[in-house]
Amino acid sequence: MSQAEIGLIGLGVMGANLALNIAEKGNRIAVFNRTVETTRKFHADAGELKSQIVPCETIEAFVAAIRPPRPIIIMIKAGEAVDQQMEALKPHLAGGDIMIDAGNANFRDTMRRFDALKDTGLTFIGMGVSGGEEGARHGPSIMVGGTEESYARVEKVLTSIAAKYDGEPCVAWLGENGAGHFVKTIHNGIEYADMQMIAEIYGILRDGLKMTAEEIGDVFGTWNRGRLNSYLIEITEKVLEATDPLTGKPMVDMILDKAGQKGTGKWSAIEAQNMGVPATAIEAAVAARSISSMKGEREAAEKILGLPSIGEFQVADRAAFIKDLENALLAAKIGAYAQGFAVMSAASKEFGWSLPMPTIARIWRAGCIIRSQFLDEITSAFTKAPDAANLIVTPAFAAMVKETDGALRRIVSAAVLGGLPVPALASALGYFDSYRRGRGTANLIQAQRDFFGAHGFDRVDGADSHHGPWGSV
Ligand code: 6PG
User: Fold this and answer.
1) For the whole model, what pTM was predicted?
2) 191 alpha carbon to ligand 1 midpoint, in Å?
3) What's the pLDDT score for residue 321?
4) Which domains does the chain have, with CATH numbers?
5) Where does this protein hold substrate (predicted)?
């Protein structure tokens, strides 16, 4: 029997689906799971893909089943378990073998793991995989970080399983060590911002316009056929139109308003802060999830403070207002993506990766959670201007911002006056307004810093005088 082209450890939901995808695309795959029963059941249930899968019950048999140099995908819970699994594998591997962490790892762990293997002859790939269960099974977006040589060994398999956009595979080698996991982290940060902005718009429709879940679903359905066309808008419509089998009410109305988070959004915000890059939409989205989880405190505060003038939400022309909401969401989305790409651009310099912005946008067009037509427009903008300082100053996006930021301003104003929280939408507007203003207000901050701490300042006229006459005031 011929050897497997690749191996996979961890037959949880994501691992099992990825393994089936690999087998289905004609690649022979060896699989191993800590619990032997899981491996047996997985193989027994694999139907016509059974012959492409080599189920292994020991690590020795698993390693022996793979063609050297052996690429081994580790698809287990991120964190310490990955280090333990790598340690367990190591003694069985030979020079050139490649351990591939396909979980949502913190890129700093990936850098550490990559470095730790440096002098062992083994190599490490940190691979971001997006698209959830469905994506893993039928075509995810794959972001690879590691040596180019190790990528060459797995490129064929990964290309065969990745999602395709107009026939182009959504997989790419993005750079050394932590590049793939960093890009996946920022993908998730943008995902958080995108989801939060959609939720804020939903809040305006629900609490401002008093629309039902089904009516709001129809609005998102219409938008999905326009410029906002994307997976997240598509599932928003589906979610809003689903009925709870227990009560017969809209499903979404029966779900507690406490959002979970596993860390990637927070890591995006932290890394942005570390590099001094504003990523306010991502930060707002992470904070909004945190405040959502403080359900008890919020309920208590509502009793004490009351809701701000919620009954006064006035809309003269409903249709025009809904059109404004669509454009406001598009504008805010541009802000969030611009920030995400700016963070990646800074990280590229900071960590010496040369991250290819047009390629990242290209492999996010299909397969991943933030996939959309919009990403095709970003691909084209960065292809034409790969060194643009910011997405919003590329000609196509500058035009889009100018066209839609008025709507964002009107919507943020209406929401603020109506007492509806829109932290992510407002952050995008604040970002545009600050970024486009040549003369800001930090001159005052510099003066204050100099006043209390003699921190010094630069002058607009370039004169060689760096402190104010504070002693005399
Ligand atoms: C993806 C998703 C995936 C997962 C997130 C959810 O790209 O397929 O982002 O990675 O759904 O980890 O993260 P939270 O649990 O933090 O929302």
Assistant:
1) 0.97
2) 8
3) 97
4) 6-177 (3.40.50.720), 185-435 (1.10.1040.10), 442-472 (1.20.5.320)
5) 104, 130-132, 187-188, 192, 262, 289, 449, 455
